[in-house]
């Protein structure tokens, strides 16, 4: 599996979370909400230093990653991160 981010998503992280070189952004399974795979769980995101990286993508010296313990959430799908133009929020797609 891998993590892909569009140019708009990368800009969103710079504008909204003020990411800088050397930062780490973690995507994780959180309790509550729903996802295409797991009712009662949704995808969360936070700025956090890695402990045990399962998958990562590094862009402009910023690490976007998923911990090993959260890989179950993705069911071997790739995570694609983009921006919803109307809501100005991140949106997630899961692709084989």
TrEMBL record:
Domain of life assignment: Bacteria
Entries under InterPro entries matching the protein: HesB-like_dom_sf, PdhI-like
Similarity comment text for this entry: Belongs to the HesB/IscA family.
Protein name as catalogued: FeS cluster biogenesis domain-containing protein
């Amino acid at each position: 599996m891998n993590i892909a981010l569009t140019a708009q998503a990368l800009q969103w992280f710079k504008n909204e979370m003020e990411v800088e070189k050397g930062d780490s952004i973690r995507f994780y399974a959180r309790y509550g909400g729903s996802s295409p795979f797991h009712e009662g769980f949704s995808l969360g995101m936070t700025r956090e230093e890695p402990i045990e990286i399962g998958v990562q993508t590094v862009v402009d010296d910023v690490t976007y990653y998923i911990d090993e313990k959260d890989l179950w959430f993705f069911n071997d799908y790739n995570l694609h991160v983009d921006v919803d133009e109307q809501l100005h929020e991140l949106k997630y797609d899961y692709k084989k």
